[in-house]
Design brief:
Number of strands: 11
Largest sheet: 5 strands, mixed
Strand order of the largest sheet: 5-4-3-6-7
Structural class: alpha+beta
Number of helices: 13
Distance between the termini: 30 Å
Order of helices and strands: EHEEEEHEHEHHHHHHHEEEEHHH
Strand content: 5-15%
C-alpha cells in the first residue's frame, strides 16, 4: 500500500482531507491516464513511454497487479468512463486520484501547450501528479447507496428542466400547432417525475444514515424534503468540512476581486452548479419564512443590499448551517454507538 499521511501527520489539514488519505512521500512511479470509452492511453513515468490498454475490467486488473507500492495513478473525471480504472486500482491496492478536468486543463495551458491528443493529455496528467502529489486526495470507493441516490436526484433535476422547457414551448405564440403533443409530453414527464421522487423516498427510508441526514437537514428553515435529498446526494461531504470549504464547494463563497488600491465587487464562482441551484430555491423559501434567516434577509435589504446579494448570503448561511448540524449529529451518533 502507498505511504499515506493522516491528520496527526499534519495538524493543519482540514476535515475533509482527514477522511481521504494522501501521499506522505513522493510517489516512486506515476501513471497519467487519459480515459476514453473503449481504451485508456497511459503515460508511465518509470519508462517514459505511452501505451494504450482496453477500458475493460480484466485488462485493467492485470495492469494494476503489475504496479508496485508507491505508484500513483492519475486520471480525469470523464462522465463515469474512469470508474473501471479506479475500481481496478482500488482492488489491487494501488493509489489513484481522479482530477478535476478544469484544473488539469489550466495546468496544461500554463506550459503554453496548444496541441491536444490523448498522449499529450496522458503526459500532462502524469506531470500534474508529480508536481501536485502532496495535495491530491486518493480515491476511495463511494457508498453505493449514495451513488444510487445521486443518480436518481440528477435524473429528477433533468426531468424538472425538461418539464420547464416544454411548458415554455406551450406558452410560445405558435404553440397551438403542437399543443396536444406538448401537453401529452408534459403529463408523461410529470408521471416519471412522481415515480422518481417515490424511488428517492424509498431509498432514503431504507438507509438509516441517509434517513438521519435528511431528518437533520429538514430542521433548517427553507430546506424541505426535496432539498434535503438533493443535498445528501450532491454533497455527501457535508458534515466533514469546514464552513468556508462547504460554501466554496457549493459555489456560494464570495471571492475577492482586488488589485492595488482597487477593491472590486466580490462574486461567487465555481462550485457545484446543481447544489447552487438547489440552495437558491431553499434560500427563497427561507427569506419568506419566519425565523432568523428571514430577519437576516430583511436586515441586508435595509442596509441597501440587492435582493440577489441577500439571497446569496442566505444560501451561504444555509450550507454552513447544514454542514455544522450534520457534523454535530454524527458526533453524537458516534458517541452513542
Amino acid at each position: 500500500t502507498p505511504p499515506r499521511r493522516t491528520p496527526a501527520d499534519n495538524p493543519k489539514q482540514t476535515q475533509d482531507i482527514s477522511t481521504m488519505p494522501t501521499f506522505s512521500t513522493p510517489p516512486a512511479r506515476i501513471l497519467g491516464c487519459d480515459v476514453g470509452k473503449s481504451s485508456i492511453v497511459i503515460f508511465d513515468t518509470a519508462s517514459g513511454v505511452c501505451r494504450s490498454v482496453p477500458n475493460k475490467k480484466p485488462d485493467l486488473l492485470r495492469l494494476a497487479r503489475t504496479l508496485g507500492p508507491g505508484c500513483l495513478v492519475v486520471c480525469e473525471a470523464t462522465g463515469g468512463y474512469e470508474a473501471k480504472l479506479l475500481s481496478a486500482m482500488l482492488a489491487a491496492g494501488v493509489a489513484a486520484h481522479r482530477a478535476d478536468a478544469r484544473k488539469v486543463k489550466a495546468f496544461i495551458r500554463s506550459f503554453g501547450t496548444l496541441g491536444k491528443s490523448d498522449a499529450i493529455d496522458a503526459q500532462a496528467l502524469a506531470r500534474y501528479g508529480a508536481e501536485r502529489w502532496k495535495a491530491l486526495l486518493l480515491w476511495e470507493q463511494p457508498d453505493p447507496v449514495r451513488e444510487q441516490l445521486q443518480a436518481l436526484v440528477l435524473l429528477r433535476i433533468d426531468l424538472v428542466k425538461l418539464r420547464q422547457a416544454q411548458s415554455n414551448r406551450l406558452a410560445a405564440p405558435q404553440a397551438r400547432f403542437v399543443a396536444a403533443a406538448v401537453k401529452a409530453l408534459i403529463r408523461e414527464i410529470e408521471k416519471q417525475l412522481r415515480a422518481v421522487e417515490q424511488q428517492i423516498r424509498e431509498l432514503v427510508r431504507s438507509h438509516p444514515a441517509l434517513q438521519r441526514d435528511a431528518a437533520v437537514l429538514k430542521t433548517i428553515p427553507g430546506i424541505g424534503e426535496i432539498t434535503a435529498h438533493a443535498l445528501a446526494a450532491l454533497m455527501p461531504e457535508l458534515g466533514g468540512l469546514g464552513g468556508a470549504q462547504a460554501a466554496a464547494l457549493a459555489g456560494v463563497a464570495p471571492h475577492p476581486h482586488e488589485s492595488g488600491h482597487r477593491i472590486g465587487y466580490r462574486k461567487t464562482r465555481g462550485g457545484r452548479p446543481d447544489v447552487k441551484r438547489t440552495l437558491f430555491m431553499a434560500a427563497l423559501a427561507a427569506s419568506k419564512a419566519k425565523g432568523a434567516l428571514s430577519a437576516f434577509y430583511e436586515r441586508l435589504i435595509k442596509r441597501g443590499k440587492k435582493p440577489i446579494v441577500a439571497i446569496t448570503a442566505i444560501m451561504r448561511k444555509l450550507i454552513v448551517i447544514a454542514n455544522a448540524r450534520l457534523r454535530d449529529e454524527r458526533k453524537v451518533a458516534t458517541q452513542v454507538s
